Automatic annotation (TrEMBL), chain B:
Designated gene of the protein: porB
Alphabetical list of Gene3D superfamilies matching this protein: 3.40.50.970
Keyword annotations from UniProtKB, A to Z: Oxidoreductase, Pyruvate
Statement: the UniProt record of this protein carries the keyword Translocase: no
Protein's recorded name: Pyruvate synthase subunit PorB
Polar residues bias locations: 146-159
Region spans: Disordered: 146-166
Domain spans labelled Thiamine pyrophosphate enzyme TPP-binding: 54-215
Highest rank taxon of the organism: Bacteria
Record-listed E.C. numbers: 1.2.7.1
InterPro entries: PorB-like, THDP-binding, TPP_enzyme_TPP-bd
GO MF terms held by the record: pyruvate synthase activity; thiamine pyrophosphate binding
Amino acid sequence: MLEALEGSQALARAVALCRPQVISAYPITPQTHIVENISKLVADGKLDCEFVSVESEFSAASVALGAAMAGSRAYTASASQGILLMAEVLYNIAGSRVPLVLTCANRAVSSPLSIWNDQQDSMSVRDAGWIQLYCADNQEAVDTTIQAYRIAERCELPVMVCVDGFTLTHTLEGIDVPEPEQVDGFLPAYQFSRTLTPTNPISMGTLVSPDFYPEARHSHHQALLNAATEIIAADEDWGEVCGRRYGGLLKTMGDPEAKTVILSMGSVLGTLQASLQEYPQQESIKLVQLRCFRPFPRQAIQQACAGAERVIVLERALSPGSGGIVGNEVLAALSEVETRPQLFNCAAGLGGRDIPLDIVPRLLDAASQATPGHFQILDVQLDKLPQEDR
Amino acid sequence: MQETTIPATNLRQKQPRFQGMTAGHRACLGCGEALGARLVTEAAGPDVMIANATGCLEIFTTSWPESAWRVPWMHSLFENTGAIAAGMEAALKAQKKSTKVLAFGGDGGTFDIGFQALSGMLERGHNVLYVCFDNEAYMNTGIQRSSSTPHAAMTTTSPPGKERMGKRHLKKDMVSIVAAHHIPYAATSSVAWPSDIRKKVRRAMAIDGPTFLQIHVPCPLGWGFDGAKTIEVGRLAVQTGLFPIIEIERGGLTGVLPIRNPRPVEDYLKEQGRFRHLFKKNDLRAQQELAHIQAIADHNIEVYELKGHGSSAFDDEGMTLVQRGGLRRA
């Protein structure tokens, strides 16, 4: 049954359905509504868990880690500065191979201070060793959260579910909240293989000498690559339960034979679809929603772009001094194919700048004018900048 | 009368006790922290789970694939031990288990970088015994000053010189800050008083709520003394009044280890290389700093009434009778 729910409210319900035993969080816009809604579920007796209202994001991640190590299913959520404050713990969680789920309500990173949406926060911790899944709408965010626990627990890896701040977290949509029995069947009670317990004492997080460190890193890398199978399986199996599937690692839309591909992540996919309807193009276009950024699905991207003459990567973050982050990785993936399409790389919607409905014609226009491989930020009012910055 | 001596090995066998931290670790000879951690885990027993901050204790007890721990133990980071312990406790509570969570940190991980996470843990009332092994500097990185380093002590980042006489600032009064969270029990102790540590650990273990124990653990390498003198140096810190042994319950002072006849601070300072610059001949600054440190000790003696009232079998008069090499001369 569809319910009109704000994204954060829907996410809180989804988290509760996963029956976490410990939740820790610290407020930050635009994540706040998620933990507020969870607190209310706890207060109303609808969710039986230890809710630890911590004194920083650093402790939020640490409490979740301690709880997972002591054998509980745990959850936390954050955004922007909070994700960066957690950064050290995020690496620690992933390196310890601890299953956890974190919602990142994507937001720009200061300075300049912006509370609005882009994906600089989660992109900045892309090398922490977490699985990263990006959601296009709130129904997908709900379903992905449930899938995330199964993926995390089967792979013994933490999963970051990335949801665009405000665009999704603060938007009301008709949501089908799954039934508890559906989730319980999909996500049975779980016992972490390395749970700390006095009856079988182990030491975790020990010092590792150069004799073993590269092996640990290799295993971690391999575990992330192997996780692709579980990500696809979770989408497929949850699809069996609820009837909704999101393409596993990525989802393609539009003309499969199209010569132009537009690839992006997150809620902008909805805008791109609407733009294609509103501004029908003469040339056929294929949209690729990159759902899974870590592990990076090289082969799936190669397949999705097969036959294309140009690929436009639209992203919501950048690496200053280098350019697009997703774009660079897609370029690297496509460099391995025989007939290599041209790649155009744009960032848009930074710090909450509106991505207008005519985004598709704008992108095509920008791509037709740009040198392939060149990165640019769309929609920059250069006349407002000092000469040397133009 | 026939002399009854029991060989030390037999004595140990007559006192079978659980060891949470076993031999074979890589601590320096005479390490006060290793002794402290052993005493705490012995008294706490096997039904515990430990969150350990980065530091000497973490490094010398574990080097993968070896570990000195016989209890479930985890090291995450330097500054999140309070939060890791809080998470463990929340999980055990959710699972309705009674295993006690212990958190171990050095003074750097407790007084400085992990201060916030500890404060949060105390404020939220987690059922955790947090033990700070206080060796008064960042020993794991090679003896740098922390906010626990005592005034005038030499470390590699507070060296004495033409313009400096060691650390310029005072030792942070951590136990008072912790007690200001109005937790049920906060106390200090010293490895020179093993029975005091055991008593306080048992006390804290029995309390359902946040408790804190700061144990003074002399560091032969960092302080500059012979590793055979750890206990003597630790004892002098207490007997001079520089490290008061106290108990604070719900914010009120409830216990003090009395020192009937305080020793002059020089007795303690001159044993250690880190205070060597205070004994330079004909140096006015050295004399001033010695007077300053004596004033700090006098202040502690007055504030905590360390000279005590009446007599008690458990005060340091009794304790000092037992020392290396037999009975103390009368």
